[in-house]
Amino acid sequence: MYRFLQKNWFRMVATILLFALLGGIGYWFWWGASRFPVVGRAPDFTLNDIQDKPVQFHQLDGKIRLVNFFYASCPDICPMTTSYMAKIQENLKKQGLFGRDVTFVSISFDERDTPNVLARYAKAYRADPNGWIFLRGTNAATHEVARNFGISSDLDPSSNLYVHNNKVILIDRERNIRREYNIGLDTNAKDIVKKITTDIERLARQ
Fold first, then answer.
1. Residues with Cβ < 8 Å from 177, sequence gap 6 or more?
2. Contact 118, 137 (CB under 8 A)
3. In this structure, are 47 and 15 located in the same domain?
4. What are the pLDDT digits (tens) for 88-104?
5. What is the pTM assigned to this prediction?
6. Which of 85, 109, 159, 183 is the most buried (most CB within 10 A)?
């Protein structure tokens, strides 16, 4: 045994170092792939909920947040996005994450969306109030919040509808923006629901 070690020590050490190097490289790629870069900082703000009570965004620190902007009379992209979030809600409930670790925040930028209008909207999509809040305010207040999140919205006087871009924003427990999902009418429902669900599950494990 001693002679064997004398003759082969260099080969054994090289083999051990090689496995250690490959293991380190594999861990580095796994660690990097399982984490999210910080792409920005979410602004703090205060708006009112369905009960017309003020909610400060920093009060939700400690939870992962999925944020979107909409208005209740939107004929196309808003209801589609809300339906995707409803499916994500159900997926997260199965994992025991919804409400406990994750909160959805849907912000209307149309002051015509009264608390009663938002309550009916939330009920239509079976939004669970234990983990999904709807916020509103004056046009000046909500449009400022939307701009701070990179959302533009302009009322078209000819149709009385808003022209706006649409994205869903994933925010971590410390209020850092980790992902932004641009959603359009051609977005594949199954793919985007799976992507956002998976990203939230991964972020919850970090």
1. 38, 39, 40, 41, 42, 169, 170, 171
2. no
3. no
4. 999 999 999 999 999 99
5. 0.82
6. 109
For residues 112 and 63, state if they share a domain: yes
Largest CA distance in the chain: 92
Taking only the tens place, the pLDDT of each residue in 101-122 is 999 999 999 999 999 999 999 9
Q: Are residues 135 and 198 in the same domain?
A: yes
pLDDT at 125: 97
**CB of 143 closer than 8 Å to CB of 153:** yes
d(CA 83, CA 69): 13
Looking at the structure, tell me whether residues 65 and 137 fall in a common domain.
Answer: yes
pLDDT range class, residue 12, cuts 50, 70, 90? low
Helix (H, G, I), strand (E, B) or coil at 92: helix
For 76-107, b/e burial (b = at least 16 CB within 10 A) is ebbbebbebbbbbbebbbeeebbbebbbbbbb
Residues 160 and 197 in one domain: yes
Domain tally for the chain? 2
